[in-house]
Description:
CATH superfamily: Response regulator
Helix content: 40-55%
Shape: globular
Distance between the termini: 27 Å
Order of helices and strands: EHEHEHEHEH
CATH class: Alpha Beta
Number of helices: 5
CATH architecture: 3-Layer(aba) Sandwich
Number of domains: 1
Radius of gyration: 14 Å
Largest sheet: 5 strands, parallel
Amino acid sequence: MKPRILIAEDEIIIACDLRHLLIESGYEIAGIASSGEETLRMANETEPDLILMDICLRGRIDGIEAADEILKHNRMPIIYITGSTDQNTLNRLEERGEHILIGKPFDFCELNRTIRRVLGDSGKPKTFGNRKSCAAGG
């Protein structure tokens, strides 16, 4: 069974690129959410194996607040992806203890290695068309 990943990302181009690359890497996409509220609903409905969580989401709650709510009910792993690496954001994450943060722009091979590590997946990395193989450090 393929690991199921929920993408919480408000930038549609990034969300679609992630979806495409994750599917090519052998993952199933549980859904794409663009707001904190939608992320909460989809996480509850789809019960993904992992969430890729942008910190700056649309709606009343951001990715950190959405993760707090999700983790009250389910201990699924969350990888934060953000372009907001200001001190306030970093402090908010530190207050929550252990976390994984990948800054934007990110290297998909690095993200894929992180996902595999978090999920315990030892499968072989894929090669993406003209892209270098992630196994080659590309």
